[in-house]
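Fresh eyes needed here. Kindly weigh in on this sequence plus structure tokens:
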Amino acid sequence: MRPRSASRPAGAQSRQHRLDRTAGIGDAEEIAEVAWVGHGQIAEYVPYGLFEPVQDYLDEVLPR
């Protein structure tokens, strides 16, 4: 999860790689922080929720 830079609207973005478990960086100048989080911590980083199909998938495959 990463907060957006000051030049963009407030919000958070996430990126997941299921097979190799590596995080990607879109633009190194915009990255404020990177955190690996468990299923129960997602809401702390994305308070308005994830895109519903993404959340459904994570609910299915991640341990709670």
